[in-house]
Write a structure and sequence with these properties.
By secondary structure, the chain is an alpha/beta fold. It is built from 14 helices and 7 strands.
Amino acid sequence: MDTNAQPGDLVQLLTPTGQRVEHERFAWTHDDATLADHLRTMLLARRFDTEATALQRKGELGMWVPMLGQEAAQVGSGAAVGPRDEVFPSYREHAVAMMMGVDPVRMLATFRGSAMVDWDSRALRFHLYSFVIGTQTLHAVGYAMGMQRDGLVGNEDPADNGGLIVYFGDGATSQGDVNEALVFAASYQTPTVFFVQNNQWAISEPIALQSRIPLYQRASGFGIPAVRVDGNDVLAVRAVTEWALDRGRRGDGPTFIEAFTYRMGAHTTSDDPSKYRRREEEQAWKAKDPIARLTLYLLGQGAIDKAWLDATDAEAEALGVRIREGCRDLPTPRLEDFWGLTYAHLPDALVNQREDYLAYEASFEEA
């Protein structure tokens, strides 16, 4: 298999109108029942995302990072993750988090300011959200080097092997950390899949401004095989990601995947995309909605029907209720607890600092 996509080559297995197409190098190897399950996950993830956005608008969250329009990129890649693989997210991978077993309500705690990122990353194999752009790529490559040294790569029995996928956005590709991570991954041939969700906008700057060539072509400068995939096509995303993770697990080194998608909403809830995007552009991408195209296909195949859609909508409604109620029930953090999150044994200077701050806080109650 030729591992490098040619200029302009976009791996696609399902068109925006819901039609299956063939690709010479990648194929969908699962059934329509699996696709129906992917659609369900995408619908639930979108409902979670819209509920969280609404909670922020109502003052229940300090900020939210929407993933609207990127459901196929996340569900397709998340479905390729195996039992010994590790996932390093940025701050927008809510659908992947749900697939890896993170409780959506607990995901809200960081954005509400009621807790640090508090899921068990070791048990779930889904590591902590990274809010400093690009830093997680270095963490991921270092972890992947550890997997090599622990004998988890290149074993004769595939069940003994693991790979790693790290997520980041198109804007992060201009960060030094990402480029350093690519250098180390290529040098040590780590089992790392660099999964960039190119949603066309690095906050308010278009991708064309920061990269004069398609992003996936940058990987060739590091000696890393790269593929550009239709990020709104869950079939193609899963097929490409399965191939890339298999490469890593076998010991064939890193892969770079550019999922060509679109951020249909704001960068964060503090952003107003109407200030820098044209409505015509948004409408053109809306016609490529990943959920709409998969729904069209499955309805045409008879794999789902109105009853299935109604049942999934009811499940999404129940999830929305749980998100709204769970968010408001999240515990209020206590000032005295924050020092204990820094050191196992608190130094005397910080003990004194804690007492000063608590006394200062108490002074407001007395007033």
